[in-house]
Amino acid sequence: MITRVNRHLIGLLALAATAVACARGEMLSYTLGIDVNCPTGLGE
Amino acid sequence: MPIREGLARLEGVESISPRPNVAEATCELRTKDGRLLDPEVLSKHIYEIRVGARLRGLEAAVTGSLDKQGQDFVLRVAGTNAVLRLAALGPKVQKDMARKTPMPSTRSEDKAYTKLLAKWKGKPLSVQITGPLIRIEGKGLTLEVRQFALKR
After folding, report:
1. Is A20 an 8 Å CB contact of chain B?
2. pLDDT of A42 higher than 70
């Protein structure tokens, strides 16, 4: 049987789970434009 | 220190593409947990690697919600509190190495910002936007719209 306290606890846990899921940003990828004066070591 | 090692030392960097795109003088980078990179911080970091490299520009592919804030259209980055002001495309990050100039934008890229705004019907719209990420004094981070795709 779910008591009133347990219901509150379940609610808090659900809220915490949502917060964790939302913590991830959605910057998918970056393209860096780099000018170089010499080999960069990026793999030329 | 090679620039790859230097970039990998930047806090929050998850991976760097194995090979650069030599034709466009670019490389790809991903951050841990999709974190937001500040172009000024990245530029300073690359300068401080001291291998004669300079950040010409930074382009980002971002998913979020198109919204209006005052007179500006903005992208509320999904999963964060970050808000990026949106603008029309300026010079591209990709470089035409033969001409030593920014790669010219296509007709479709030139119209992308206007086309995106035409989708606005007064309520937030889920969208993925790709374009140069720049910091404008007094206006904060601005994402220029080069391409977009509406999300469901």
Report:
1. no
2. no
